[in-house]
Amino acid sequence: MADQEIQPHSELASFGEELRREREIRGISLKEIADATKISKRFLEAIERNDHKTLPAPVFTRGFVREYARYVGLNAEDMVNRYNFAASRDDRIEKPPDVQKYPQTPVRDITPKPPPKRGIPSAFANVNRNLFALILIMAALVGVAWWAVEHKRSDAEVTETAATIPLTTRTPVHAPPIAAPAAAPVDDSALHLVVETTANSWIDLEADGKSIYRDEMLKGDRKTFDATQAFLFNRIGNAAGVVLTLNGTKVPPLGDEGEVIKKRTFDRAALDHLRAGAAAQPQQ
Hints:
The protein is an alpha+beta fold and about 280 residues long. Among the domains are: about 80 residues, lambda repressor-like DNA-binding domains (434 Repressor (Amino-terminal Domain), Orthogonal Bundle); about 90 residues. Helix content is about 40%, strand content about 15%. It contains seven helices and eight strands; from the N terminus they run ααααααββββββββα. The strands form two sheets. It has a four-stranded antiparallel beta sheet with strand order 4-1-6-7, with helices on one face. Strands 3-2-5-8 form a four-stranded antiparallel beta sheet.
C-alpha cells in the first residue's frame, strides 16, 4: 500500500548486528572495548542498537566505528565505509529527494550529424588470424619432430659406443653405502612456535612485545612464528582447539572447549619447564 510506513535504518540495523556478532565470536565485552578505546559504553551500545538519538554527530560516530572495528580485529576503514554506505541508504529511505511535480522534458537536438570518419584499415587487418595460428602449430610440430630425431640418434650413438668396449675392461662401480641421516639439532638461539588448530579459534599473539597475529584461525590451519625473548598470547578464543609446539616440544592442552585463555607467556623459562616435564614422562 502507498500509505504503508517504510521501516527506517534497516541497513544500519544489520550493520550494528554484524559488529555485535563479530565481538561475541571473539569473546570480547563492551566494557573491555570501552576501557581500551576510552569510548563511552553507552555509545558502543547505541551503535549496536542503531540508536540515533543517543549517538553524536556522524563525524564522531565514524571515529567510534573505526576504533571499535580496530579493537576486535576487523578492517577499520572497510567497516567505516560500510557504515557510510548504510547510513546514506537509510537517509534516502527517510528523506526521499524532492522531485518536481511536472518535470520539463529536455529539448532534443535533431540537427543532422555528419557520418563518422573511417580510417584506412591496416595491411594486417585483412589477414585471417587462423592462418597465424596454423603457422605456429606447424612450427611447433616441426620442432618436436626434430628434437625426437636428434634424441633417437644420440641414444643410438651411445649404445653403439658401449657395445664396442671389451667386457674385460669394464670395471664394476659400487655405490658407496648411504649413511642414515643424523637427527637435526634443535636451534635454541631463538624461540620457534608452531600454532595448529583442530577447531576454529581466535588468536591474539605478540612476539617480543610486538603484535604479530590478531585474527581467527580456522580448523586445520598451521602457522609458525619466531621470537628472540618471549611469546605472549593476549587471547585464545577456544583453548581446546589450539595445539602449540615450542622449539620442537609439545605444549600440554591449554584448556577446555570454548574456554578463553588470556595473558599466557611462553619464554625460555617456559621452554626449560616443558622439556623437563617431557623428560620426566616414562617412555612408551
